[in-house]
Amino acid sequence: MTSDSSEYLSLTGEANEYVFENGRRYHGYKPGRYMLPNDENEMDREDMKHHISMLITKGRLHLAPIGADPEVILDIGTGTGIWAIDTADLYPNAKVIATDLSPIQPQWVPPNLTFEIDDAEEDWLFEPQSIDLVHARYLFHGIRDWPRLLQQAKRVLKPGGYVELVEMHVIPSSPDNTLPPNSQIMELYTTLAEVSQEVGLDLSVAQKYGSMMVSAGFENVVEEVFDLPIGDWMQDRRMKEVGAFQRYQMVEGLHGIAFGALTRVAGWTPTRVQVFLAGVRREMRDRGVHCMYKLHFVYGRVPESVK
After folding, report:
1. Is the pLDDT of residue 258 over 50?
2. What is the spatial distance between Cα 66 and Cα 160, in angstroms, rounded to a whole number?
3. Domains, the chain, ranges and CATH?
4. Could you tell me how far CA 31 lies from the centroid of its own chain?
5. Residues 183, 127: Cα–Cα separation, whole Å
6. Which pTM value belongs to this model?
7. What is the residue-wise DSSP string for the chain?
8. N or C, which end of the chain has less CB nearby within 10 Å?
9. What are the C-alpha distances in Å from 15 to residues 19, 31, 149, 224?
10. pLDDT one-digit tens code per residue, 47-104
């Protein structure tokens, strides 16, 4: 057996080990790199977020205009793999590669899809100028150096290829000022933002993607921002459905969203976290509180040639 094979077996063995804390399962490969769990409850929530994205975009898996016949697509931090699976079905002639720290993806997938265990913050081993689209979604809990990630994406993308980043801007707002002055939802954001900053994470990075892409040398940078309500209070029928799903995934997901950061980094006791989250859940369930986040889709193109 070659040393490369030995390293691969060691890696896959480590990736299949897990860390258990406060009743939740976390990734074992490079533990702590990603702050959220990877158990069944979190996987269900990730799939629901995919459904929300599809509702918001009216069924579009990506907004970057990559054409009808891309050859290679890379999905960074694929999670459950649901985006990669749907994308492989949409482009059956393309090779789709999806990477993540955790091997939690299904085994039965389209034949043109490959899942790989990888850390997006390490050096990418893909061939330069070999990929048509690099896609990354909902990774503000895991990426600490976005400019480096964009440079790596630019290196592996073909001339004319696209990078697309999708993220929630989770600073809450209220169009009719029904969010209380001492809002528990706002306190959730400010608390997690301060804690995350201590470990190099930026929870408000979504609004910075556009300028980051321009600084990285991408051209034709486009940013599309969608309302993401918490609750079914908007008038539009589709947005009512979006809001209902968003409220459910947030209320059900608060434990996974907050526990790792608040117990590991901030040093809170589990009891303190539970009491804090109970107040946030009450506010999210309050139909009199009209609160929303924003969902940012930002994409940019690698220049065809150096000017």
Report:
1. yes
2. 9
3. 14-301 (3.40.50.150)
4. 18
5. 48
6. 0.90
7. --HHHHHHHHHHHHHT-EEEETTEEEE-SSTTSS-S--SHHHHHHHHHHHHHHHHHTTS-S--S---S--SEEEEES-TTSHHHHHHHHH-TTSEEEEEESS--S-S---TTEEEEE--TTS---SPTT-EEEEEEES-TTT-S-HHHHHHHHHHHEEEEEEEEEEEEEEEEE-TTS-S-TT-HHHHHHHHHHHHHHHTT--TTGGGGHHHHHHHTT-EEEEEEEEEEEESS-SSSHHHHHHHHHHHHHHHHHHHHHHHHIIIIIS---HHHHHHHHHHHHHHHH-TT--EEEEEEEEEEE--SS--
8. C
9. 11, 10, 22, 35
10. 999 999 999 999 999 999 999 999 999 999 998 999 999 999 999 999 999 998 887 7
For tokens 């579009």, what's the residue?
Answer: 60
For 7-53, the pLDDT digits (tens) are 333 344 455 677 776 777 776 566 556 677 677 888 888 999 999 99
Any bridge partners for residue 293, and if so which? 228
